[in-house]
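Posting this for the archive.
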Amino acid sequence: SAWGGAPPPPTQTTFVGLYALDETSPFRAVSVGSVCGATYPRYSGAVNGGLCPPSGSFRIGRPTAPGKYKMVVAQFSPMNALGQQGYYALEDRNIIAMYTVLPADCRPAARADALVANDPATLLRADFNATAADLALKAAEAQRRLDAVAPLRAALLAEPPASVAMLRPGALVWQGIPTTLCYNIPVSANVNPKVLTLYIGREAAGSYYPTGLGPTAVLPLAAAGCTNVTVSKGIPTGRYTLALEDPTSGGSFGASVTVDTDRAGVACAGLSKSVVFISPTVTWSMPPALATAQDTVRVTNARGDVVFWFYTSCRCQAAPPPGTAPAPSGAFTFRLGRSPVLGGFAFRLFPGGGAYAAAVAPNWVPWKQMGW
């Protein structure tokens, strides 16, 4: 035997054995021969790096029972970091030859067949063909899996169509009050600037108000996001359609949302003051058809804290009793003490006492005007 080139010689105490074709244990050989036992009968890492000489010879006994055998190198593995050493299970990659023992009365044809079957070129060709067939099967299976997920992959890579929607679908939009709108445009179709056009009615066509949304008509640069838009108080109330468009080309993204709008109002109509408190007079107005007994006016300081509030229907803070008539419009004077938060006071009108304002007073009460 001889080892040369890049692969090093086997480790000392490595042996070669003849085994039955289905055997995996290195210790169940029919016949064995030590690769370099005559030179290195025991393993020593300090001698020649624990390796056999690069060349040499050894004898291995011949099996007597007729049959096919494999000749396999059982390599010794020196002690590792876990304290393990010895021989591992036989591996096909360590087969170096095939061996056939024929019965004494075999025919010449059987001998010829054995020579061909055990010929290294025949074995290599068979191994190559088996490998090629195995690779072909694996490639076919991989392609089947790719074909199975192709629709999903296409769906994941597909860009969703353009869309636009209100964050609170179906909610009434109060003119003059910012409301949140979300939009999406395919990245490949995104342009800037892009705008919302306010069309009259439920169609994204026909008459529109060029300034109906003011500066909030221009959307952010990103292809998708949410932004606040404000429908102007200077246009009639009613139904409008907000359409997503490209003002440069005049084209539409085919996405729009229809909303109903109305108008409410709240204001500080008068103010008297003293050293320790002020008495503002607040007026409000709601569309009569939308007014409820639970409509409230809330007063907040510069930090946004509610410092006073009242029901418009009863000018009180106790829950209006059943049957209380709404007050679509009116006025109420009340007292406010000095707030620990510097700044001033603002007034907002909340339909039904809810969380969303219908109107914000255009004037607020700055403390500097009161000398506080």
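Residues 120-157 form the longest helix (38 residues). Residues 15-118 form one domain.
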